[in-house]
Amino acid sequence: MSLEQLHSEIPSSDPFDLFDLWFNDALETEINDANAMALATSTPDGSPSVRMVLLKGHDADGFTFYTNAESRKGGEIRANAQAALLFHWKSLRRQIRIEGPLSEVTPEVADAYFHSRSRNSQLGAVASDQSRPLPARSAFVERFKAAEERFNNGPVERPAHWTGFTVKPTAFEFWLDRPNRLHDRRRFTRGPGGWDDGLLYP
Q1: For 94-113, what is each residue's pLDDT tens digit?
Q2: Angle value at C-alpha 37, between 70 and 193, nearest 5 degrees
Q3: How far is residue 118 from each of residues 39, 68, 113, 155, measured CA to CA in Å?
Q4: Sorting pLDDT into bands at 50, 70 and 90, what band is 153?
Q5: Is 181 a known active-site residue?
Q6: 118: which residues sit within 8 A by CB, 6+ positions away?
Q7: Based on the domain organization, do 104 and 125 belong to the same domain?
């Protein structure tokens, strides 16, 4: 065993700073969607579900994504405002897990992000009853055309149910691939005085 393998390559530091460092690396190396993350939610009785969403903002308050609050994930969030996130960057052989409660962004923040999107994305959000049964794709296309006609060339009104949610971390877990399955894994948990951390067996 080399001397290098005896020591952790994941530093004991502020987990937000470490996230920023790894995320910036991913922005340079990942071919598509370095901001893609798996979002896990669950029903009140504990039935889990997971899907990929895009990170659209992060700071000391948490990690924000946007969705239709009347979708399946939106309903689960309303019923049980806890979530887990997973970033996996294959090019870097790294992953980050984040856990914590969810809070909804303000209408002003949702408006600002909604209107930063392409017009067609805004119209698609208006046209879609996300997660609900669709009788035929043509029905969705017709609803999109109806939204185009409704707003003509004017501003597209954000649907009240289209909003954002922020995960405020209570835990981070960083994982780094290393040779011979001697991987590196460090978990951070939020305590009364700040962040506590320690290594985990991989």
Answers
A1: 999 999 999 999 999 999 99
A2: 100
A3: 24, 17, 10, 12
A4: confident
A5: yes
A6: none
A7: no
- Using DSSP, state whether 56 is helix, strand or coil: coil
Q: How many CB atoms lie within 10 A of CB 33?
A: 11
Q: Are residues 64 and 11 in the same domain?
A: yes
pTM more than 0.85: yes
| Residue 168 amino acid letter | K
Q: What range does the domain containing 98 cover?
A: 3-111+161-199
User: What would the two tokens of residue 72 be?
Assistant: 């399946």
State the average pLDDT over residues 150-158: 94
Q: Which residue has the tokens 């924000």?
A: 64
Helix-, strand-, coil-residue percentages of the chain, each rounded to 5: 30, 35, 35
Among the options 78, 119, 178, 181, which is catalytic? Answer: 181
Question: 63 or 43, which is more confident?
Answer: 63
User: Structural domain tally of the chain?
Assistant: 2
Residue 62 pairs with which residues in a beta bridge?
59
Sorting pLDDT into bands at 50, 70 and 90, what band is 5? low
Asked if the model's pLDDT at residue 3 lies above 90, the reply is no
Helix (H) or strand (E) holding 197: strand 194-199
Length of the chain: 202
Residues 190, 151 share a domain: no
